[in-house]
Design goal:
mainly alpha, 4 helices, about 55% helix, elongated
Length: about 130
Amino acid sequence: MTENTMPDQPRNISRDQILEVIGGASWLITQGWEADIAVETAWRAFFDGRTIDQTDVENSSLANSYQGIALGLIDQELGERAEMNWDEARDIIYNTAKLISEQVQATSKHFKIDVATGRRLLAGQNP
């Protein structure tokens, strides 16, 4: 995502807002979305005053775990900070999303499962 893709970027973004964005992005990643697209979608939802609707899908415990890991990583990165500037928040969210995406893909490939559902992949199906 480039700085010009988001309208009216705030000077600072709060801890809760950062956690909301990574929560939505990591959920999308566990559903099979590419990290960059997931983060872009989560940012757009945030800026439009929406959230990523996770209510209609029953996640596997593995998907929930990866989402929890993403939130925990962001929480660790923020430390005691209540807010940070836009550029720093964007970088932290992208880096965390990419890390989670790589782990989700590796888990899916190694165990031949769909992380979102916890079900086995069909023969010849790629994660």
